[in-house]
Amino acid sequence: MSDGDLNTKEFVLIQMQRNVVNLYKNYIVLAEELKREHDVFLKKIENQLPQEYINDIDYFDSERYNYLRKRILDMGNELNRDLEKYFDMINIELDKDSLNQHHSERLNKLLKNSKSSQVTSKEGKLKVKGKII
Length: 133
What we know:
The protein is mainly α. The chain folds into two domains: 3-87; 96-130, no CATH class. Helices cover 70% and strands 9% of the residues. The protein is built from four helices and two strands, in the order ααααββ. It has helices at 3-45, 51-57, 62-87, 96-112, and strands at 117-122, 125-130. It has a two-stranded antiparallel ribbon. Strand 1 and strand 2 form a beta hairpin. The protein starts with a helix and ends with a strand.
C-alpha cells in the first residue's frame, strides 16, 4: 500500500469520524432544547397545580438530562472506535477517471464567470491561457 493510499484512508476515516461527532453534538443540542421546553412547560403550570403534582410529572430533571447526554456521547464514541477498528480491514482506491471528471467540472464552473480564458489539457496537465477572475 502506498503512502497516498494511507493518506486517503486516513482522510476518509477522519471525515467519517468528524461527521459522527457532529451528529452526536446535534443530538445533544436537541436534548438541550427538549429540556428547555420541558422547563417552560413546568413553569407555565407552576401557578395552577400543587407543587407535589409538578414534582411527579417532572420526568426531565437535571439527572435525566445528564444521563441522556452521557449515553449520546458514549454511543458516538463507541461508533467512532468501531469505525477505526473496522477501517483497518478496508483498502481504499480512488477512481482516477471520476476524480479527473470532478476536477474538470469544478474548473469549468470557475471558468464560466471568467473573462478571456482558455483551458487545455495534455496528459493530465492543465494549461490556462488568459486572465481568470
